[in-house]
Structure formats: C-alpha cells, structure tokens
Design goal:
Order of helices and strands: HHEEEEEHHH
CATH class of the largest domain: Mainly Beta
Helix content: 25-40%
Largest sheet: 5 strands, antiparallel
CATH topology of the largest domain: OB fold (Dihydrolipoamide Acetyltransferase, E2P)
Strand order of the largest sheet: 3-2-1-4-5
Distance between the termini: 10 Å
Shape: globular
Number of helices: 5
Number of strands: 5
Strand content: 15-25%
CATH architecture of the largest domain: Beta Barrel
Structural class: alpha+beta
Number of domains: 2
Length: 197
C-alpha cells in the first residue's frame, strides 16, 4: 500500500473518532442553536443572574483534547432573577464555540448569565442567552422575571474534581476503539506491502 494513501487512511480514522494526538483540539461541528429569544432563554435556564466575571480557568492540558472540554467561570454575583445563586458562583462551559462554548468572555465585565444545572454542575452555553449587560437585555429579563433579589448565600457552587475534568473529554472506549482500528490498518498495509514486494 502506498505510504501516502496509508497516512490518509490513518488521518481519516483518527478524525472519525474526533481525536488528535498532537495536543490540539479535535475537529468539531459548528454549534447550532435551537432558540435565540429571551422567553426561551428564561424557560430553559435554572438560574438567571447578573454579575461580574471574576476568573476564567481553562481545561487541564492533555495529549488528547476535545472541543467540549470544560472551562470554569467564576462570577461575583450582584443581582439574582431566578434560582438559588450565591454571591460568588461557578459554572462551566465548553472550551470551544464550535461546541457551543462561551467564546469571547472577558474578566471584569458584567454579564447576564443563564445557567442550567443538569448533571449537578451549573453550565452555560452560547445558545443559552449569556451576554454582556445592556439596558435592553436587563429590561427584557425584568419583563419576564420581575425585579432582582440579592444573592442568597455567599458560597461557591460545587465544580468537578480534577479527576472528573481529566475524564470529561473523549471516552476511553472511543480512544481504544480508534487505536485498535489504526493498528489493524497498519498491519493490513504492511501485509499488502510485503506481498507486492
């Protein structure tokens, strides 16, 4: 088998499993949002609040990275419209906008946050309505939810442990299956090459 053809096949197999072993982010489909209006943002969210973004912590660097790896956001909350939210709260989002992560977030800027609590860890996405504070956005939220309250408790929400973060990328069985496929292709290529020699 021609070595260039073999290399092409190997790259195709790796791409089909969504992994890249060079340390870069894996290929991902573009994010597609099902809704983009305030009533839908509010209906979907478990918590709606306003605060200043205090810290952004990226995912731990690993050989195999995914566009869905979690970024942790810490927020100093000053207004709560819905949900039990502390004066300091933490949530997660995907590292890449391709997986509906919150691209372009800036520390020390005020935002209206819409988070959900599926799986126990609060999360937000680019499809959920989180955006910088503007008078128009605040007016839209207040029309739907009324006047804000102060944060309920001065605690940081629970976040995943380092072990959870390390395992939140590509599932191990997927990587194993991909590597088995690569080994099988290499073995087949070597057999064909020996026969043609």
């Amino acid at each position: 088998m021609d070595m260039r053809l073999l290399a092409s096949v190997l790259l195709t197999v790796l791409a089909s499993f969504g992994i890249v072993v060079t340390g870069g982010a894996g290929p991902a489909l573009a994010c597609s949002c099902a809704f983009q209006r305030f009533p839908e943002y509010v209906a979907y969210a478990d918590a709606v609040f306003v605060g200043t973004l205090a810290e952004i912590e990226g995912p731990a660097k690993r050989q195999i990275m995914s566009s869905t790896d979690p970024v942790t956001y810490t927020v100093a909350v000053d207004e709560v419209y819905e949900g039990a939210v502390g004066s300091t709260t933490v949530f997660e989002s995907a590292v890449s906008g391709a997986s509906c992560g919150l691209d372009g977030m800036v520390v020390d800027r005020r935002y209206v946050f819409f988070t959900t609590a599926e799986g126990g860890v609060p999360t937000a996405s680019s499809c959920g309505g989180t955006a910088p504070v503007t008078p128009r956005r605040l007016a839209a939220v207040q029309r739907l939810l009324g006047q804000p309250t102060t944060p309920s408790v001065a605690v940081v929400e629970a976040v995943r442990t380092d072990d959870d973060v390390a395992s939140s990328g590509v599932p191990e069985w997927t990587v194993a299956a991909g590597l088995v496929g690569v080994v099988a292709l290499l073995a087949a290529g070597l057999r064909l090459r020996r026969r043609s020699a």
